[in-house]
């Protein structure tokens, strides 16, 4: 088929070519409108030179407001630029040693050209630790727990060069958490990091510093959503469930084991079966098939306030969600009065518009969202003050605009299904019927008394 048969103008053809080229360019960036500058920054600080290489401290800073890395933790990988080896490590370890047969006597910790590094576990002996290590790879978000949003390990590198001019930065850096989702850019030389001594009286600096920036994309992490939102209200009997097939559809005929019935005799077998150590969700059979459901219930209406109940339910039999969090957009968060049993922090992504909140559990109380079962839910209530100029229950105003769970966008019901206020005409009809009913009762009583 030629261009004339499609009846395309030269201008239209040029536009088509432009968009084709645009789509074909791979992008390493991921933009989150609620956290536009969020990323994980990796600093590679060379602290000293050795006979055949250097000693470096590698530090990961999670600058994301609400996206964290939970158990089983992060795995950091890269490709060496030359023929480097890792002689030793503190605070972390390579998952494979690789082929070190050419070395006699002193055997390196890792000889692989593409090593994969993991954090050490809590309780590691002190002589194998450095600051910010040994958390099992768990990395909190910056807003939720900044003290635990940093991870470090020390690596002694050989066969690398021993000066700023001969040493080369690692290439093809990857960050898995434990699955995909993060895309890391190239290492860039930046001004040397500085370090202040514990007494605050001396400042030292690294010999050379490289920065690597990793950004997150939910589409790369999983092709299907991981959570959905349901809604209800006191002024409407309708419960709006999560949209059908929000995260997948039940397909036990062609794909057995895609979900498990809550009271099935095979439930325990499925949990403890061959995939028990897999992090692939094993979800309870529902119409939405999501591991997580967030429910927003408009509970009470007062003269100057209104009250909402928020509940998070875990339908995943294989996962406890540690340090979970919610991010919710609603216009009345600028008048939030009290929140019960959750922590709260305002997120202001659009300058002065305060309509987004981050909620998470109270430590040692409800910060662990248990696997599916009787304890697989957490809940809280929120009290809002009414703004007379903007407040209304009509047209779904009392319901959230967006909901994120652990940084992933949840599937919302269609707006036309939101629980709405009853029609004013219906209310008037009810009032008329009630008035007629009362009048009939009065008339009947009078007739009985006269009779």
From TrEMBL:
Protein's name in the database: COBRA-like protein
Keywords for the protein's UniProt record, in alphabetical order: Glycoprotein, Signal
InterPro entries: COB_C (IPR056900), COBRA_pln (IPR006918)
Keyword Glycoprotein annotated: yes
Signal peptide (residue range): 1-30
One annotated GO biological process: plant-type cell wall cellulose biosynthetic process
Start and end residues of each COBRA C-terminal domain: 226-419
Family membership: Belongs to the COBRA family.
Superkingdom of this protein's organism: Eukaryota
Pfam hit, one: COBRA
GO CC term (a single one): plasma membrane
Native source species: Rhynchospora breviuscula
């Amino acid at each position: 088929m030629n261009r004339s048969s499609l009846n395309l103008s030269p201008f239209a053809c040029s536009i088509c070519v432009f968009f084709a080229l645009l789509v074909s360019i791979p992008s390493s960036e991921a933009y989150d409108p609620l956290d536009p500058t969020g990323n994980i920054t990796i600093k590679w600080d060379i602290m000293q030179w050795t006979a055949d290489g250097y000693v470096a401290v590698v530090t990961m800073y999670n600058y994301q407001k609400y996206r964290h890395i939970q158990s089983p933790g992060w795995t950091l990988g890269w490709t060496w630029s030359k023929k480097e080896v890792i002689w030793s490590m503190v605070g972390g370890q390579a998952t494979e040693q690789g082929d070190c047969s050419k070395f006699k006597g002193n055997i390196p910790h890792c000889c692989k050209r593409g090593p994969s590094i993991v954090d050490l576990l809590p309780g590691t002996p002190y002589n194998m630790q450095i600051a910010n290590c040994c958390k099992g790879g768990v990395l909190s978000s910056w807003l939720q727990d900044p003290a635990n949003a940093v991870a470090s390990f020390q690596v002694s590198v050989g066969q690398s060069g021993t000066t700023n001019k001969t040493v080369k930065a690692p290439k093809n850096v990857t960050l898995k958490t434990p699955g995909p989702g993060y895309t890391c850019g190239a290492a860039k030389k930046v001004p040397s990091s500085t370090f202040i001594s514990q007494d605050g009286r001396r400042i030292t600096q690294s010999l050379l510093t490289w920065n690597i920036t990793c950004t997150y994309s939910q589409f790369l992490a999983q092709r299907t959503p991981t959570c959905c939102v349901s809604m209800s209200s006191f002024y409407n009997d309708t419960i709006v469930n999560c949209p059908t097939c929000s995260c997948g559809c039940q397909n036990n005929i062609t794909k057995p084991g895609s979900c498990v019935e809550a009271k099935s005799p095979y439930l325990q077998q499925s949990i403890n079966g061959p995939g028990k150590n897999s992090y692939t969700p094993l979800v309870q059979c529902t119409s939405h098939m999501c591991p997580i459901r967030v429910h927003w219930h408009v509970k009470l209406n007062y003269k100057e306030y209104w009250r909402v109940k928020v509940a998070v339910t875990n339908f995943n039999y294989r996962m406890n969600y540690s340090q979970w969090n919610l991010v919710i957009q609603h216009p009345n968060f600028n008048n939030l009065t009290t929140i019960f049993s959750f922590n709260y922090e305002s997120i202001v992504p659009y300058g002065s518009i305060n309509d987004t909140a981050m909620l998470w559990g109270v430590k040692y109380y409800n910060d662990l969202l248990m696997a599916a079962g009787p304890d697989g839910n957490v809940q809280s209530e929120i009290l809002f003050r009414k703004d007379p100029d903007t407040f209304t229950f009509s047209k779904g105003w009392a319901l959230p605009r967006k909901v994120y769970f652990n940084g992933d966008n949840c599937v919302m019901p269609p707006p036309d299904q939101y629980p709405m206020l009853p029609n004013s005409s219906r209310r008037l009809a009810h009032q008329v019927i009630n008035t007629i009913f009362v009048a009939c009762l009065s008339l009947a009583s009078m007739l009985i008394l006269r009779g």
